[in-house]
Amino acid sequence: MGSPWVAGVASVVAALVVSARAVEPPAPGPRAVVLGIAQDGGVPHIGCRQDLCAAARRDPSRRQRVASIGLVDTDGARFLIDATPDLASQVESLWGSEAPPDRQRPVSGLLLTHAHVGHYAGLMFLGREALGARGVPVYATARMCRFLRENGPWSQLVALGNIELREIVPGTEVALSKHLRVTPFAVPHRDELSDTVGFRVRGPERTLIYVPDIDKWERWDRRIEDEVARADVALLDGTFLEASEIPGRTQADIPHPLVGETAARLPAALRSRVRLIHLNHTNRLLWEPQRLDDPSLRGLRLAREGEELGL
Description:
Elements: H1 4-23, E1 31-36, H2 51-58, E2 68-72, E3 78-81, H3 87-95, E4 109-111, H4 117-120, E5 136-140, H5 142-150, H6 154-159, E6 163-167, E7 174-175, E8 181-186, E9 197-202, E10 207-211, H7 224-229, E11 233-237, H8 259-265, H9 268-271, E12 274-277, E13 301-302, E14 308-310
Parallel strand pairs: 3-4, 4-5, 5-6, 10-11, 11-12, 12-13
Antiparallel strand pairs: 1-2, 1-14, 2-3, 7-8, 8-9, 9-10
């Protein structure tokens, strides 16, 4: 039998161990991670000579990657919404200091909103000229899947098994992983090559909606204010602040809701849920975010690269 002194020390040590365990921070839960906030061309934008782009060329820390979010579950599953031209660095950001357990399947899946260059062109890096990926699941609507199957070079990704197409249906929820569920929903957008969807992402505790592109809120068969009210966080199309941003082209050519139009539809109580994403390089909010202090816009905020949103 041990001495009372030894027994006492053992009890103190055990108590300290229990106490230490009790104060350890809990493991991060399911979450979304903002991986880019710019419109399809990014910042610096090709052909752009404005101060924002010139500064970003001189200083890489001022660059803005193309709009995308990552989804992370506690079981290690990681997904990307949209395959942007910045896919390679966004995959690295999604894993941080860790390395994917399977180099040829760097994410558990990719979810595509539509066939505009900033949202699917990153698939090219999964081909044999780059990663030579193996069976990366790509979740897309039937029309988007058909576009990828029937048009090169994307059809080669399918034929070689670099990607595995998984058709999703607007309005039907899909279980991605242990704690993450997504529901695509149709939105009106210039659908030259495919249809367009946004996503509702549901975790154990919170819900997020992701709508980086839409023509105009009034052309939707839903009310954006109702959709924001049903979500905890809403990542919304913030492409343009002003209608005059693109010389030689009009809102009829490339329609998007102006930031002020979005704000006007949302009561103050809902604006705090919004993060603006998909900002064009001409959008003054990228270099003058204080404009959101204007009473007509107050409450909205820009999504911030690296921002984590619990689900």
